[in-house]
Task: inverse folding
């Protein structure tokens, strides 16, 4: 079955996003990048494209607990290299600019996990993690006295996780 120009372009857009992001992405992040934030393709087409690229072995799905992460395979890189010029130059530039401005935000959102909950005694437990596709690098639980403190730690984890990890690593390996 021959694919349409639009279908080919959608596949190339997703592959180009993976190439530029150079990190594993979850399903929602791919849809957010390709549709919600930029409107490069409709969500249904995006979902179909992810499925077809996975079946064609151009992207690979890895499961990390309940989370599914996608990465581009060597076959996907080869395909992109062969058809790169089929993506309009203006669109390639738009994707490159978007990725440059937002890559670290997506990386932090996927690698720096955080939640908190109220305990029976009225205190709060804050659960913080740094995860990579293949391993958990850091996992911490804090019990704090009130909701305000728990919320503050929760909201600031993504901004501070890397420096906290580095500080702990340096202090523990001295």
Result:
């Amino acid at each position: 079955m021959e694919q349409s120009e639009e279908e080919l372009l959608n596949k190339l857009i997703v592959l180009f996003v993976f190439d530029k992001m150079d990190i594993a992405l979850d399903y929602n992040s791919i849809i957010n990048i390709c549709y919600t934030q930029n409107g490069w393709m409709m969500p249904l087409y995006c979902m179909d494209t992810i499925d077809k690229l996975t079946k064609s072995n151009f992207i690979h799905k890895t499961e990390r607990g309940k989370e599914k992460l996608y990465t581009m395979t060597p076959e996907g890189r080869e395909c992109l290299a062969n058809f790169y010029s089929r993506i309009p130059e203006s669109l390639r530039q738009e994707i490159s600019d978007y990725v440059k401005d937002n890559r670290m935000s997506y990386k932090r959102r996927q690698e720096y996990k955080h939640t908190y909950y109220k305990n029976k005694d009225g205190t709060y437990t804050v659960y913080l993690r740094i995860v990579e596709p293949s391993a958990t690098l850091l996992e911490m639980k804090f019990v704090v006295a009130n909701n305000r403190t728990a919320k503050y730690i929760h909201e600031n984890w993504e901004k501070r996780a890397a420096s906290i990890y580095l500080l702990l690593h340096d202090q523990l390996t001295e």
In short: The chain has six helices and six strands. The helical segments are 5-21, 27-36, 43-55, 74-83, 89-111, 147-173. The two ends are 61 Å apart (CA to CA). Residues 10 and 45 are 8 Å apart (CA to CA).
